[in-house]
Amino acid sequence: MSAEMKSQDSDNDSDYDQSDHMDEDEEDFCGYYDNDTDDLDIDRPKKTDDPEYFEYELLKVEDVERLLNEDVEFLCSCLKVDPHLAKMLLQVHQWKKEFIMERYKKDPAKFLVDSKITPAVKYKSAPLGVQNTCSVCCRKLPSDYFCHLSCGHVFCRECWDNYFQVQILQGVTSGIECMENNCHILVPEDFLCRSLSKPELRDKYTKLSFLDLVNTHPQLRFCPGPNCSNVVRAKDTRSKKVDCAQCKTIFCFGCGMEYHAPTDCATIRKWLTKCADDSETANYISAHTKDCPKCHVCIEKNGGCNHVQCTKCKNDFCWMCLGDWRTHGSEYYECSRYKENPNIANESVHAQAREALKKYLFYFERYENHAKSLKLEEQTLSKITTRIQEKVMINSGTWIDWQYLLDAAVLLKKCRYTLQYTYPYAYYMEKTARKQLFEYQQAQLEAEVENLSWKIERAEITDRGDLENQMDIAEKRRQTLLKDFLEF
Amino acid sequence: MAGLPRRIIKETQRLMQEPVSGITALPDENNARYFHVTVIGPKESPYENGTFKLELFLPEEYPMSAPKVRFLTKIYHPNIDKLGRICLDILKDKWSPALQIRTVLLSIQALLSAPNPDDPLANEVADAWKSDESQAIETAKAWTQKHAI
Ligand SMILES: [Zn+2]
Ligand SMILES: [Zn+2]
Ligand SMILES: [Zn+2]
Ligand SMILES: [Zn+2]
Ligand SMILES: [Zn+2]
């Protein structure tokens, strides 16, 4: 955005119409994630229309503690057990209350054995005399220096203390078992805390144990944002999008990584591992400059849009494939589709390996390029903000008048983000009719995203109605793709 | 041996007085936590007749954490890597303070009799073991001849 923005003062009437229209659009775009309440049709709520809809709440540490305590208390009163036992059962069984109640009520003794809380057979040690040898430290000590868990394996208090210290210093706070070899009885929290002699380790235990509780609780996940202590709670534990209100990090509830629709958690993990393993092979791709395929002048890409126009010969070409941009119209968009060698099965092992690498690099290059474009478009967004600021200062329209440009930039980011994550998805897809449909929709989204990007970069010469129309089309393409392929 | 925990003293004494057959473990002159170990390759294993040198070190936290053990003699085994590191559960998460140097060395001896390619540390060796066991055993025998006799 370098030239003057189009002034809105000249045509007041049409401006009015457009703002009205804009309000509706804004509902569609910006209110997408939170408009489940204002729908009157209860049988078919609006949220089912949004493939990314996800119900969750953001909790503070205190909220989480309260929530977990409520679960413990609930179980205490239902099963008539003490809080330590209730908490232990919840921890062992990933806080599945219903499951615990059902199994406990059926056969409490067996359930406690299955939960590694009580032993199937209690170990009968020789009765403690006045002096006894601890089998771990080999010291002779009076009988009141000894204690044991429900299994009956006796060790001295100092050994228990040392044992727990080492575990905590190694970061282990859950699943700590009896010291005896092959005894899997779990150490109850109160036993551990009573045994620990160092108060600072007790604090460390409390902290680590809380992290552990959240990490193993299927309905909870820490926000991965730097220095953010928020916890997300969701009933539905799938790979869905979470937007942390505090630190603005957007992440996947399922795996805690960067949000990655339409790719699922397992696939994105595979993809990221592959990218890390093959980072050397893929390194050469990071080119910021390319030569114009027509006049060969060196062109630097400084915007996110992959529809690039040569500054010298005005040739319109595609940054990805260097092909003529005219062949990238939505009807004929082949750039995102990898054409496999149909005869590859009959080729040599060497040729197959080369083909596999070629295929990976094709998808990686596009995935990586969208990530880069996203960064560049971040700069565009800040430029737009500055431009609007200037405009408003010289009374050329108000913030509200220019809001649509910011909305367009935000929407572009959202669409390109989804587009980026279509590439790992496509890479791992079997060659089926479904893949053809996916690639068709991906190509459609690809074309509309670049059109939108092109128009935003030239906002001063783009008609507002035209831009809003383009926003609408791009978001519809994105929604269509997600609706058909976001299914975990 | 000043400052050495009673537990280590006891174990060392017992290792000297009642040695385990096929295994020797001698504490270093200068460091009572460091042991020079030899394990004789078990009968009817590809390591038969071989004498394998190992080092064993008792860390500060011992027996709350496991001893550190490593093969010094080169060995072709799916659970032992190039650096001599051993993949054995009791040396990792299955360690119990009630286990001893003696039990650890016995477990290592048993591992030589029964390699476990499904829980590998040396991937190429494990793959070889799974795809052609008799060939892998031949290689293990050859390595034993070359490095351990
Ligand atoms: Zn003791
Ligand atoms: Zn026990
Ligand atoms: Zn956050
Ligand atoms: Zn995920
Ligand atoms: Zn292209």
TrEMBL record, chain A:
Catalytic activity annotation: [E2 ubiquitin-conjugating enzyme]-S-ubiquitinyl-L-cysteine + [acceptor protein]-L-lysine = [E2 ubiquitin-conjugating enzyme]-L-cysteine + [acceptor protein]-N(6)-ubiquitinyl-L-lysine
Keywords: Coiled coil, Metal-binding, Nucleus, Repeat, Transferase, Ubl conjugation pathway, Zinc, Zinc-finger
InterPro entries associated with the record: Ariadne, BRcat_RBR_TRIAD1, E3_UB_ligase_RBR, IBR_dom, Rcat_RBR_TRIAD1, TRIAD_supradom, Znf_RING, Znf_RING/FYVE/PHD
PROSITE patterns linked: TRIAD, ZF_RING_2
One GO MF term: zinc ion binding
EC number(s) stated in the UniProt entry for this protein: 2.3.2.31
GO biological process, one term: protein ubiquitination
GO CC field: nucleus
Region (Disordered): 1-48
Pfam families per UniProt: Ariadne, IBR, IBR_1, UBA_ARIH2_N
Domain RING-type: 130-339, 134-178
Locations listed in the record: Nucleus
Matches recorded under SMART domains: IBR
Comp. bias regions, Acidic residues: 10-41
Root EC class: transferase
Main location: nucleus
Stretches of the chain forming a coiled coil according to its record: 442-484
Gene3D superfamilies referenced in this protein's UniProt entry, alphabetically: 1.20.120.1750, Zinc/RING finger domain, C3HC4 (zinc finger) (3.30.40.10)
Entry's family note: Belongs to the RBR family. Ariadne subfamily.
PANTHER family for this protein: RBR FAMILY RING FINGER AND IBR DOMAIN-CONTAINING
Stated name of the protein: RBR-type E3 ubiquitin transferase
The species this protein was found in: Mizuhopecten yessoensis (Japanese scallop)
Automatic annotation (TrEMBL), chain B:
An individual GO BP term: protein ubiquitination
Keyword check for Transferase: yes
Domain UBC core: 3-149
Entry superkingdom: Eukaryota
Catalytic site: C87
InterPro entries per UniProt: UBC, UBQ-conjugating_AS, UBQ-conjugating_enzyme/RWD
Keywords of this entry: ATP-binding, Nucleotide-binding, Transferase, Ubl conjugation pathway
Cited SUPFAM superfamilies: UBC-like (SSF54495)
One Pfam short name: UQ_con
GO molecular function terms noted in the UniProt entry: ATP binding; transferase activity
Family according to the record: Belongs to the ubiquitin-conjugating enzyme family.
Name of the protein: Ubiquitin-conjugating enzyme E2 N
